[in-house]
Design goal:
425 residues, alpha/beta, five-stranded parallel β-sheet
């Protein structure tokens, strides 16, 4: 019996001669990360176990991206603790000030997470790097403390589910819609502790931005990881960025999967997830008749804050004004993306439309900073979660969509389809 790409990567990083789903194994790690929320907890545990030095200061990234620039004294204290630890340990990849970006956009951009890697992060959306053909998963801060000390971690080899997508995606439909559609089909526990392997002609046609979005949200189906086999698009993205060597893995043709799903998505519409689960999805044609008015639209995050997303939003917003009844907040995911958006004239389009531009930050996504919702407010967001209270007050509502739907909705003041707005080419 052959192996899946996930099993091959884990086998390569273990001392085992063979592995099977369900086995508990130790794996050597290529890279690990934490942010300003999770790193202080990991540092506390690191000191509690008596560790003095991290196993390798060049294999750890510390990225204070959630509450910086600091919003209050507590967040300032947390960032300070991370900053001092990074200096004490000589952490090479510590990002602060104007260098910080949203971790899951920043690390691939910096060439620090690569195909064939085994990566953990004290953040649930660490599964994003599966888009590069890596095994990556989120862990708790205690696990990260152990990994920072010894450079390895134990985990259970996950079963894999294969998702095959056929056809050609219609206009305004992208990776966000594919993953919302998929989660809608299998539910938020449909891939519990499994590896979601995405493949097919549609996946192979997608940009890296779309692939990152898909793998990012594997956790929203309960998965341990998401992964896409590397191809020429992957390599084109990686070659100019990689800071070390990497190895490519592919699934064997006779690899074993717990389930296989196959869908023709030629007629897929932009999808909208209603409160309060990413699986509560509806096609946009069913949504626009409901006249769901909005108080805020958010375009950004580790799902849709990349340059490709901003280009889509700008294309729709160009020459239009944001509806006076709502706030449009836009977050370029990294300083590099911000700079590119500035040079391309996207920021000017957003500002002319009446949008608010924030520095790179995870803040709005988790209701922590730069766009918190009040009681009874309703937001449409390009983020990855719409749980109760996710973006602010427990009695607020969050809907999820792709950036095209978000931009159109910002103009019309209600959840809208992109084709309801005149696009001024």
């Amino acid at each position: 019996m052959g192996l899946t790409i996930t099993e091959k990567i884990l086998l390569k990083h273990s001392n085992n001669k063979e592995i099977s789903p369900g086995d508990l194994i130790f794996v050597k790690l290529d890279f690990m990360l934490a942010n300003d929320i999770t790193a202080p907890l990991a540092i506390k545990e690191f000191r509690k176990i008596g560790a003095k030095k991290v196993f390798d200061p060049e294999k750890i990234a510390l990225i204070p991206d959630h509450y910086t620039p600091n919003k209050d004294i507590k967040s300032a204290q947390q960032a300070k603790e991370v900053r001092e630890f990074a200096r004490e340990q000589g952490i090479k990849y510590f990002y602060d000030g104007g260098r910080v970006g949203i971790e899951h956009a920043l690390l691939p951009e910096e060439g620090l997470v690569l195909p064939g890697d085994c990566i953990i992060g004290a953040d649930s959306h660490t599964c994003t790097y599966g888009a590069l053909g890596a095994f990556s998963t989120g862990v708790g801060s205690t696990d990260l403390a152990y990994a920072m000390t010894f450079g390895e971690i134990w985990l259970k080899v996950p079963e894999s589910i294969k998702f095959i997508y056929y056809g050609k995606l219609p206009k305004w439909v992208g990776g966000k819609d594919l993953i919302l559609f998929t989660i809608g089909k299998i539910g938020v526990d449909g891939a519990r502790y499994k590896a979601m392997e995405f493949t097919g002609e549609v996946i192979r046609s997608l940009s890296m931005a779309d692939r990152f979005t898909i793998c990012n949200m594997a956790i929203e189906a309960g998965a341990k990881s998401g992964i896409i086999e590397p191809d020429e698009i992957t390599l084109e993205y990686v070659r100019s960025r990689a800071k070390r060597n990497f190895e490519i893995f592919y699934s064997d043709k006779d690899a074993n999967y717990s389930e296989i799903y196959e869908w023709d998505v030629s007629n897929l519409e932009p999808m909208v997830a209603f409160p309060h689960l990413p699986s509560n999805v509806y096609p946009i044609s069913e949504v626009i008749n409901k006249n769901i008015t909005l108080d805020q639209v958010y375009i950004g995050s580790c799902t849709n804050g990349r340059l490709e997303d901003l280009r889509i939003a700008a294309k729709i917003l160009k020459g239009h004004k944001v509806n006076p009844n709502l706030r449009l907040i836009i977050t370029p995911a990294t300083p590099s993306i911000y700079m590119s958006a500035l040079k391309e004239g996207l920021i000017e389009i957003f500002l002319s439309a009446g949008g608010i531009i924030t520095p790179p930050s995870c803040g709005p996504c988790l209701g922590g900073h730069l766009g918190v919702l009040a009681e009874g407010e309703r937001a449409l967001s390009t983020t990855n979660r719409n749980f109760v209270g996710r973006m602010g007050h427990p009695k607020s509502e969050v809907y999820l969509s792709n950036p095209a739907v978000a931009a159109a909705s910002a103009i019309l003041g209600r959840i809208s389809a992109p084709w309801e707005v005149e696009v001024k080419e």
